[in-house]
Design goal:
This protein has 174 residues and is an alpha+beta fold. The protein has one domain: Aminopeptidase (3-Layer(aba) Sandwich). It has a seven-stranded mixed sheet with strand order 1-2-3-4-5-7-6, sandwiched between helices. The longest helix has 15 residues. The two termini are 21 Å apart. The structure holds coenzyme A. The site of coenzyme A (COA) has 19 residues, from helix 1, strand 4, helix 3 and helix 4.
Length: 174
């Protein structure tokens, strides 16, 4: 599996990966509707790819298996989406993509990675916590705005949290 920065020509393949990844929510209490929720469109992917903030996992046959889409806000790199195609899950690919984003943040002199996620879904907050992300009890305006926007899109606010991983320390894995 090759992890590399996304090319502009990858943008059109990413929505199908997010859609496939989302099928996993069929197993999460009360979240099965996310299998049919809207995904990030090619133009938004293209914009972030042009900002050099998207990485993909490419299989040996050239097909894309996963992506991580990020954006810099001040001194922090926010992870907007991390999706691994259903056929490729549980093989450590998400971990490799987070590593790429982390290295980028180090190289850019950023202070942290941030994200919002489900607190109680096993492959969300608990998995990020294993990698050193900590829940933010006071998320600050940017992340609170993100949480509020997600609530307006129907995500249950009582199950959503913001998390932060300071850059510069170790990335705990297990
Ligand atoms: C979350 C997701 C990106 C993980 O991708 P992945 O490549 O399968 O993850 P990894 O193999 O790197 O696993 C990392 C850790 O995540 C957790 N994890 C991943 N899939 C899991 C699952 N189905 N059930 C429980 N824990 C899971 C585990 O802690 C795992 O570590 P382990 O294998 O040592 O137990 C993938 O399941 C996915 O695309 N899900 C749908 C979209 C999504 O939920 N994105 C993140 C939203 S915040």
């Amino acid at each position: 599996m090759l992890i590399r920065p996304a090319h502009l020509t990858d943008a059109s393949a990413l929505p199908a990966i997010e859609k496939s990844a989302a099928q996993l929510f069929g197993t999460a209490d009360g979240l099965a509707w996310l299998r049919d929720a809207p995904v990030i469109g090619p133009s938004d992917h293209a914009r972030r790819i042009l900002n050099h903030a998207v990485w993909v996992a490419e299989a040996a046959d050239g097909a894309l298996a996963a992506f991580i889409s990020t954006e810099i806000f001040d001194s922090e790199l926010h992870i907007w989406e991390l999706s691994v195609h259903a056929q490729w899950q549980r093989r450590g690919i998400a971990s490799l993509l987070i590593d790429s984003a982390y290295r980028y943040a180090v190289n850019r002199g950023l202070g942290a990675l941030t994200l919002t996620t489900f607190s109680d879904v096993p492959w969300c907050a608990p998995a990020y916590a294993k990698r050193g992300f900590a829940p933010l009890l006071q998320p600050g305006k940017r992340l609170q705005d993100t949480l509020d926007a997600e609530a307006m899109q129907g995500l249950p606010p009582e199950r959503r949290i913001a998390m932060r991983l300071p850059v510069g320390g170790l990335i705990p894995r297990r």
